[in-house]
Write a structure and sequence with these properties.
The protein is mostly helical. Helix content is 59%, strand content 4%. The protein has a five-stranded mixed β-sheet with strand order 2-1-3-5-4, with helices on both faces. Helix 7 runs parallel beside helix 10 and helix 21 crosses helix 23 (481-488). The longest helix is centred in the middle third of the chain and has 28 residues, at 338-365.
Length: 625
């Protein structure tokens, strides 16, 4: 086998490895509501104008925008899911990411083989963080596709690269708000090439007049085509405005990559981003004198957005690798050194060996097809709780957590309506949901957690007081705020986890429900708790399924034990709390408390439990034990 055939074989096996590496079960919190909206559009033949799924619908412009800006992507998801099942969605995801790698591989044709494999391997690793099955997947693929089409036209003058650009932008604008990236890229190409033609023509290579006019004309048509969507020009303004949404400040994917390098949020994937950034920028700096103006604009634009939020990191990684591949450094240019030519075949054989090793590892660890063709039961997807509700309750109004709302919406509509979900479709609902989950006694209550603890902790030998800086912003109500809100919206079912999915922090609502006799615990499975109001309509259900609320401490322990090893202090303080409430070992609890405080000295629960143990020891000493 000659060198070129061997090189093609390496590429094919590498692409196969990339495809396999992205095969994993669906676990994204947003996927269910995208699927449900696609189902609604298919069944009703129209995009919903008001939110049909939740308890609160205002019909305002933000709500209409979120319901309509992904409609085509959601319809594709539903069509594939309906025809093939979850496996179809998994295959679509793998195809889109593999397509990105193929485009980058093609762009890096002049990059030494081992370097190219290494760069694209870690790029695939980075993309593994972005496996959420959402319409955003299309934006990742279309972003690099648009850059590749425009760059190839710039190089070859072939009109075939521009023919499909308007259709691509039309499709993209109805799939995901990321089409704005495409508009900016087209604008950068058109503006930069115009500047080069009229002002820098003598010093650098630029498009001739005819080619420039065609680029500008097709670019303009493509941008206009993107306005053909349910929100027209407002799709752009509303997407940009959404980036400043205060709700996003607490969502990890909107953190800056710089924030990701610190504390418990640091990860190897984030350092891959910084490494690719360094590689791309150094390579471009070494070619600064011949750096193309268009390339410079693309790099600055994608670098800026990637530094603003983690969710935009892939756009810079793709662009940085694509653009830097257009330049070569003499010291790694094989054509300039005879020794490199002699090493081509051995290096290709080594590359084949390494790729085959990766392939073998992936095939060995690859999930079974059966597991890919089902939605796994997780804390984000509480299927056990869903089955319980569908079997035992005809319908109702559910309060749930932000992260499980999407799955509950998908599985329970139209029999049940949920209060909140990951769409963040209603500011008011989001803030009120937060007030309920944190069991606020009044608006702005900053001490609800300690108050909830004080209602259940058995402290007989003293009292625990917490000095905090929060101030009461409203007079106490006859009923506490969280109770008023549940009454206001007629909520009769609570489906909620005991502690936060990611940090392990116990929800004050769950602590308050332990002593609240108006709510009865009827289900607990280590993933979700179900409470129902103690009303005549639920009396039979309660008599059949009521569980002692002490079971909640087991739930807290189960939820947090699976997160041991993570660097979040609340995981360990929550485990200590569950252990103490179950009458477990004080010494073990104290170990958890100390570890929690070593991670975060401001961990409120750990400090509270530390004081609790001191009081408990003092009580024992005074009684002579």
């Amino acid at each position: 086998m000659n060198y070129l055939k061997l090189k093609k074989l390496v590429a094919v096996i590498f692409f196969l490895c990339v495809f396999i590496s992205f095969l994993s079960p669906i676990t994204d919190a947003d996927f269910p509501w995208h699927l449900k909206t696609g189902e609604y559009v298919y069944q009703h033949g129209e995009i919903p104008k008001t939110d049909p799924f939740s308890l609160i619908s205002t019909g305002d412009i933000r709500e209409r925008f979120i319901l309509s800006c992904y409609w085509l992507g959601q319809l594709i998801f539903y069509g594939i899911y309906n025809l093939i099942g979850p496996l179809g969605i998994v295959m679509l995801r793998s195809l889109l990411f593999t397509g990105i790698i193929v485009i980058l591989w093609s762009a890096m044709k002049n990059t030494p083989l081992l370097l190219k494999i290494g760069a694209l391997y870690i790029t695939a690793m980075l993309f593994s963080v972005y496996l959420g099955d959402r319409p955003q997947l299309f934006s990742f693929f279309f972003a690099i596709a648009v850059i590749a089409l425009l760059e190839n036209y710039k190089k070859t003058s072939s009109k075939k690269y521009l023919i499909f650009l308007p259709l691509l932008m039309l499709f993209w604008a109805n799939v995901h708000g990321g089409f704005i990236f495409g508009i900016v890229v087209i604008a950068i190409f058109c503006l930069s090439e115009t500047v080069k033609h009229f002002f820098l023509k003598k010093s650098i290579v630029s498009l001739d007049k005819e080619r420039l006019l065609l680029l500008v004309a097709i670019g303009f048509i493509s941008i206009i085509a993107s306005y053909i969507n349910p929100n027209t020009y407002q799709a752009i303004t509303l997407t940009i405005e959404a980036q400043g949404d205060p709700l996003f400040k607490v969502i990890k994917e909107y953190f800056s990559p710089y924030d990701e390098t610190r504390g418990p949020f640091a990860s190897r994937y984030n350092f891959i981003y910084w490494s690719i950034m360094g590689y791309s920028l150094v390579l471009l700096a070494l070619n600064l004198r011949r750096l193309d103006l268009t390339h410079l604009g693309l790099i600055f634009f994608t670098l800026y957005i990637s530094l603003s939020a983690i969710r935009f990191v892939p756009f810079f990684v793709m662009t940085g690798l694509f653009i830097s591949a257009q330049y070569r450094v003499n010291i790694i240019n094989p054509d300039r050194h005879a020794i490199f030519n002699k090493l081509k075949l051995p290096v290709t054989i080594l590359s084949l060996f390494l790729v085959l090793l990766w392939c073998g590892s992936l095939v060995h660890s690859m999930p079974r097809i059966s597991s890919l063709n089902r939605i796994p039961e997780t804390r984000l997807y509480p299927e056990g709780a869903v089955r319980f509700l569908l079997k035992n309750i005809d319908g109702g109004r559910i309060f749930c957590s932000y992260n499980t709302g999407s799955y509950l919406l998908w599985r329970l509509y139209p029999r049940f309506r949920t209060f909140i979900d990951t769409r963040g479709i209603n500011y008011k609902a989001a803030y009120e949901a937060d007030a309920i989950s944190h069991a606020e006694r009044w608006e702005g209550d900053g001490n609800s957690f300690v108050d909830a603890l004080n209602t259940i902790m058995p402290v007989d030998a003293g009292s625990i007081e917490i000095d905090y800086s929060g101030k009461r912003t409203a007079a106490p109500l006859e009923k506490e705020r969280w109770i008023n809100l549940l009454d206001k919206y007629g909520i009769d079912i609570i489906v909620h986890e005991a502690s936060n999915f990611y940090t392990g922090r116990i929800f004050p609502l769950i602590l308050r429900l332990i002593k609240d006799n108006h709510w009865r615990l009827v289900y607990s499975d280590g993933r979700a708790l179900i409470f129902v109001r103690d009303t005549p309509g639920f009396r039979e259900l309660i008599s059949q399924y009521e569980i002692a609320k002490e079971k909640i401490y087991d739930q807290i322990g189960i939820e947090n034990s699976v997160m041991l090893g993570r660097q979040h202090s609340h995981i360990y303080s929550s485990l200590a709390f569950a252990l103490l409430m179950k009458g477990g070992s004080d010494e073990t609890a104290e170990t958890y408390i100390k570890h929690a405080l070593s991670l975060n000295q401001k961990d409120l629960l750990a400090s509270y439990l530390e004081a609790f143990l001191k009081i408990k020891k003092a009580e024992r000493a005074s009684s002579g034990e």
